[in-house]
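Morning!

As promised:
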Amino acid sequence: MADDQEQQVPAQTVEEPLDLILLSLDERIYVKMKNDRELRGRLHAFDQHLNIVIGDVEETVTTVEIDEETYEEIYKSTKRNIPMLFVRGDGVILVSPPMRTGT
Amino acid sequence: MATSQREKFIFKNTLLCLLKALERKRTTVELRNETSVSGTIDAVDFQMNISMTNVVFKAPNNKSERFTDFFVQGFMIRFVHIPDFINIKKAIEGVVYCNDRSRLDTKFQRNKMNVNAKKMERRRKFQEKEDQKLSSLEEN
């Protein structure tokens, strides 16, 4: 019988954009979200709304503060670890394999 | 209120099935306005609206408030924490492959639980009466 929808073997041809995400199932991914948030973790499931189930995830929230005297922008980021998270699709901007910093 | 065809379709074809399987479990829901709600999920509907009980509501200034009942609008949700004890594959299969109404229709499910509870109660009382009769017969 047909496998559960999330357990499908990825098709050989990439036909639609969501197939690109299908290729990253069970791999580590980088998710950029609204409000300057980023998630890095293992992709367990997703659907057509881009609701995502992500495991071993590290959430990074980036804030910009402006120094009163020098008017320079100070970038601060807060990190948080969550074992398993369901992300509502309307907050997701993009999904990609993890970025290599410094390359 | 029966689950409409549209609701059933949405539960069986999107990841909402996982949230549906979280009913009656304790989790934390984080909202778009930087607040978090920790409590027992009572019901999830096809628009991701979640009603919860025994809730601790945390504001951005870290102040907590307790509520017995809480309702979260679906579009306000940013994250839902999935508890460690949930087997995701089994939870999704339980919702997607079920053919009867009980797992998709919260009110129907609750009614069923109440009816079963009443049946058990009636059976227990009947059994007690029978035992009393037997013991009074033995005495005589």
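Chain B has a mean pLDDT of 89.

Hope this helps with the figure draft.
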